[in-house]
Each structure stands twice: as structure tokens, then as C-alpha cells.
Amino acid sequence: MNVKKVLDAKGLACPMPIVRTKKAIGKINSGEIIEIHATDPGAKNDLTAWAKSGGHELLESREEDGVFKFWIKKARDKQ
């Protein structure tokens, strides 16, 4: 997977992983991928719902040693 940006949101509680992801995804181009690392268990539901509501594509998510990892492909910019 060709990741454009990695966001470290470990140690942050809701809603900060979403806030940081929204800010970071604004700095990449449509079609590019952002990788997010979070430790808040609520991040799984929050980021999944946020990606869907924004038209972004959640490519993959998994947990590794207490760290939740997400790969989200940025949606096309609205014309």
C-alpha cells in the first residue's frame, strides 16, 4: 500500500483521533492514503463512521499490540 501520510494519534481520547485525521487528510490529495495509529478502542467505530460519512474509503483496519491501525483512501474532491 502506498501510504502518503502516517498520523500518530496514540494516547489521544475521543474525539481527538477524528479531529487529527480530518486535519491530516486535508493535506493530502484525492486518492492518496493516510495511515492512522490510535490506542483509543472507540477509534475503530469512530473512524469507520467518519470515513463513510465523508465519502472516504476505509481500505483496512487491524489491531497490533493494542494499537489500532487504519488505512483510509481520501475521497475525490467535490467539484
TrEMBL record:
InterPro entries (UniProt xref): TusA-like (IPR001455), TusA-like_sf (IPR036868)
CDD domains, sorted: SirA_YedF_YeeD
The UPF0033 domain, residue ranges: 7-31
Family in the record: Belongs to the sulfur carrier protein TusA family.
This protein's name: UPF0033 protein YrkI
Organismal lineage: Bacteria, Bacillati, Bacillota, Bacilli, Bacillales
Gene: yrkI
